[in-house]
Amino acid sequence: MLHPLITATALHELLADPALRLFDCRYALLDPGAGRLAYDKGHLPGARFIDMNRMLSTSPLAGKTGRHPLPARADWIRTVTGLGISPDSLVVLYDDGGGASSSRMWWMLKWIGHDKVVVLDGGWQEWTAAGLPVTQALPPAAEPVADHYADRTALVQLVQAAEVDGSSQLLLDARELPRFKGEVEPIDPVAGHIPGATCSPFSLNLQTDGRFHAPQALREKFAVAVGSKRPVVCYCGSGITACHNILAMAVAGLPLPALYAGSWSEWITDTSRPVATGSLVRTPIIHDTE
Questions:
Q1: Which of 76, 110, 129 is the last residue of a domain?
Q2: Same domain for 179 and 122?
Q3: Residue 173: inside a domain, yes or no?
Q4: Measured between alpha carbons, how far is 108 from 208 in angstroms, rounded to an integer?
Q5: Does the residue 253 lie in any domain?
Q6: Does the pLDDT of residue 241 top 70, yes or no?
Q7: Quick check: 244 pLDDT over 90?
Q8: pTM value?
Q9: What are the tens digits of pLDDT across the range 68-101?
Q10: Does 243 qualify as catalytic in the annotation?
Q11: Could you tell me which residues come within 8 angstroms of residue 141 by beta carbon, excluding any fewer than 6 positions away?
Q12: Are residue 124 and residue 19 in the same domain, yes or no?
């Protein structure tokens, strides 16, 4: 099975591979235009820019959806094939946030049955620190390909709000501890978390240099999920960094949990859904030993 991460050196050796499809997923939540500006200033050779709000999300509906609702599966397939991606393509994704936004596209490709997709470990920073080439040149227009995904089986699980239950499921919240506890909420109108959830910040999946922790360290971080008799469901603020926890579990060699894509920003649109604050269950992290 393909490892979910790729090193900068290994990617550099693949740049001339005709099967490679390389995408720049840089994104800043509070500055949606920052990713494109960064791409225009410099990107990996051959990389195409992916817009989080326009390509990896559909328009939110006030009072009904979260901030980054998934596009319809058929619409996403049209985007994918329009980018020249087929089941034989090796898709490589990178960003400058430790995989925080790349993991969303990684998950979405798994959602339509595309298995050959990896994330650049350490992202933009790892590539540039290694002195590898960057460019401002735009790649040629993508050549659309036929749809080979409509009948493919999803490789990941998706749950809806009505299926989320903190008593019968192990809910992992990827947001930082202060937001989980409801002490601060800089984005959404209601603070707190889904009752019964465990705080498992996505930032703890990473070393200080932005690369993922080693598998054993990640297994320690997700110890609460190892051998859990309850189904594991990941969520966050709007369904982006929850995918980082799912990717980290893949790196750790653990079974992939389901994603509640609507996440906290969708959960709170219905005032009948319960909200919890203050309580804390936190998964551990250890130093890398391999």
A1: 129
A2: no
A3: yes
A4: 27
A5: yes
A6: yes
A7: yes
A8: 0.96
A9: 999 999 999 999 999 999 999 999 999 999 999 9
A10: no
A11: none
A12: yes
- pLDDT tens-digit map of 191-213: 999 999 999 999 999 999 999 99
Domain range spanning residue 83? 5-129
In a domain, 139, yes or no: no
Query: What would the two tokens of residue 266 be?
Result: 């969708």
| pLDDT at site 280 | 57
Residue 282 has pLDDT above 60, yes or no: no
**Catalytic entry in 25, 199, 236, 243:** 236
Q: What is the DSSP string of the chain?
A: ---SEE-HHHHHHHTT-TTEEEEE----TT-TTHHHHHHHH-B-TT-EE--HHHHS-----TTTS-SSPPPPHHHHHHHHHHTT--TT-EEEEE-SSTTTTHHHHHHHHHHTT---EEEETTHHHHHHHTT---B-PPPPPP-------TTPPPSSEEE-GGG--TTTSEEEE-S-HHHHHTS--SSSSS-SB-TT-EE--GGGGB-TTSPBPPHHHHHHHTTTTTT-SSPEEEE-SSSSHHHHHHHHHHHTTPPPPEEESSHHHHHTTSTTS--B-S---B--------
Residues 212 and 260 in one domain: yes
- The predicted pLDDT at position 108 comes to 98
Domain presence at residue 273: no
The predicted model gives 225-234 an average pLDDT of 94
Number of domains in the chain: 2
pLDDT tens profile 35-75: 999 999 999 999 999 999 999 999 999 999 999 999 999 99
- Please name the residue that has the structure tokens 């009505």: 162
- Both 12 and 110 in one domain: the answer is yes
